[in-house]
Amino acid sequence: MDKHFLTSLFSPGSIAVFAGQPDDPEAQTPQARALHHAITAQQYSGKLIFLDIHSSGTLADLASTHADLAIIVLPASQVPAALELAGRIKCHSALVISSGIDSAQAAELHRMATRDGIYLLGPNCLGFQRPHLQLNASVAGPLATPGPLALVSQSGALTSSILDWARKNAVGFSTVVSLGPNTSVDMAQVLDFLAADAKTHSIVVYLEGITNARRFMSALRAAANAKPVVVLKAGRKPAGNRAALTHSGAIVGSDEVFDAALRRAGAVRVRSFVELFSAAKCLASRYKPVGRHLAIVTNGGGPGVLAADWVSEIRLQLGRLTPEEVTALKPLAPPMATFSDLIDVSEDAGPEHYRAAIEAASHASQIDGILVIYSPKVDVDGDAIATTIAGFNRHVSKPLLTCWMGDASVGDARKILNDAAIPTFRTPEAAVGAFGNIASFYQNQQLLQQTPPPLSDLATPDVEGARLLIESVLAERRKVLTEMESKALLAAFHIPVTKTILARNPNEAMMIATQLGFPVALKIDSPDVSHKSDVQGVALNILNAVGVRDTFLEMIQNVTRLQPNAKINGVTVQNMSSQQRGREVCVGLVTDDPFGPVIAFGAGGTMIELINDRAMELPPLNQFLARRLIERSRVAETLGSWRGAKAANVEALEQILLRVSEMVCELPQLREMDINPIIVDESGALAVDARIVIDNAAPSVRHYNHLAILPYPSQHEQVCPMAGGGEYIVRPVHPDDALMLQAFVRSLSPESRYFRFVSSMQELPANMLSRFTLIDYDREMALVALHTEMGLDADSHPQEVTRIVGVSRYITNPDRSTCEFSLVVADDFKGRGLGSRLMLSIMDFAREKGLTEIEGLVLANNPNMLKLMRGLGFKVKAFPEDPDFKLVTHQLQAS
What we know:
single chain, alpha/beta, Rossmann fold, D-amino Acid Aminotransferase, Chain A, domain 1, eight-stranded mixed sheet, seven-stranded mixed sheet, 29 helices
């Protein structure tokens, strides 16, 4: 319920401007003159003070000056003095627009700001705009029109261009922020502010790069959970890395990893400047996206077919009416109308025909969105059709998009549709692409809701054995595991592998092959050979002992000739797979900078680079994420029944992906991995070959620091005895708890609700409920106490009912060393020890995260909570900003 920590920056009540002498424009820098004009061009509602670092006021005058925000637009040499002055007048935030400041100077400014508790935006940025406050604290051009869209850009030039474009296209903004390359207040913090900003309904981001993946993903996930986020990223790198030691490392580029990260964060990525705003416009509409089936209503076959082609091209589905729905619509349509694929109302269609078609599509449960296309026709009033659609719009609960073809004759119709907040486009492809973004947003929101644990519910892996194997390889100063070692590592995590035995001479190879049974496969075993096939190091289907001997000798000769410096351990012998109609797939791992490990899935075999079939996902995975990962690959199409072969066992592949996810979470030393090929058929999946690259991992006090997304901390679930008998479970909250949490809040007495929320609300609003259950365990924690008791189902049959009876929570403060807590217990469970246990557990979590102090605000008229806090060792003090509250604090770390 408190103000966001960046409120003093983006919603200041008072501003001190350091821009030189305002009465001597010639002495000001060009940026200072531009800022002075921008900030005074409209009536900013707060207090505006212009200060000069050379002014001759007394210290008493200075002491009486206070401001929330300092804006500094001075030559680089004068910026430190101005920032020093901002600290002395107790500014909470500062904006440095001055340019020409190098990274070393910027670092010194950051140090000064941190010392004085100032949030610093800049230097080398264009500033920001808050149109609804009439505040233009920027040199990016005139103040934008107020609107629901927020823009955050790492490029000043693009910020100015977008604002210029928006003025011509009636696009309004709640906030515009130009970050610059050296800012202290970064992208993650701005996204965090916008997620909580009531004026912002959707966010567009222009991104060139990130430095801290964990913080970026944390803020992006929180923002995308609250409102639509659309990202345009520059600097798309070509896929492939010549230094990679595995197939996966060679064909997975950083841009694909960024795609996977955005998908998992619940955001939508676009590829062009225009698409950025069409996506934001659609996502900010009142429609809730629900799927990928788009119905096309058109009065011309050509434009409709173009739209249908693009539906297929971007992997959407064409929404079709059922035969029963067609029968009901036909009497309401012109005689020439057809409904086989497109809903082609024919060129004779008028307003009432369009309305009937849209109404039919809106009631069809198999259709998720509607695109209405109009091509100008003689004697047909396009404006009247637009007016009819605009009037009918409020009756349509699905995304409704329009495309009025042409230009000269359809301008008025487009204005009618725009005024009714119906997205309208000039081409069918653009309209279909915009719906594709809506569908992607829905799919990515499903990915966002997943909070998988680091370990699955499958059989417990031998993590310690795997770590010992890795340590022994690193002790030999090696980074590439042999095939035998790689398979041993997979086996430790219960991934099925072919039995493989190393032979050091031809006689050993013959004996091993005879014991295993023919046919067998021989493969070179060398830490220096990345791709065995490239040096003729693989031989398949060897049928007898003589063939084994001859192949062994020939293979050693070939490898020695083609790669003379390679160390050769010998040749491995393994059975040929008996899966006659098996499909070859590959599961890989790459390590990205900055997102860390990424799991890849796609087609396997020797032509893996040529086929280049890769779908990617950030760990950790659960079954839902593993299934979606498989579905996104092209090889997924071959896993069903195919040319007489039975459908492959996809569940076996999902289990392998879950096992690989476990490996990635528990073994931070993993850098690259290929399990290729995995042969899968109806009976299961078997890893035939594997290659793993490792490296030393930085020592980590906290677990899972190598992951961009922190796993669900399932290891912290505990069963606690209850005073008076019985027991309850305390565990971290997860998204599935939303309904239980809402029921818990509704069941609280008005007094308990007021003590917790300082509000008379009777239930949590949807956005708050979502924010309380889908949390980032890296920067906050919420523990729920669950009690199970006997109740009755809908048919009055007895059944066990589990409900939430208490919640404790902390959120890390911006200083990243302290946190703020909250606590509430069900009225019928008070006095039974839940409050103490929930507080002690949440304090343990905060301690484990390295936080030094926990604090909270308690209403002064809440004696029971104050008594509990004193009993737990908290200090209780007056809260200077509001006498109705007490500030309670507790040191978490021993001094």
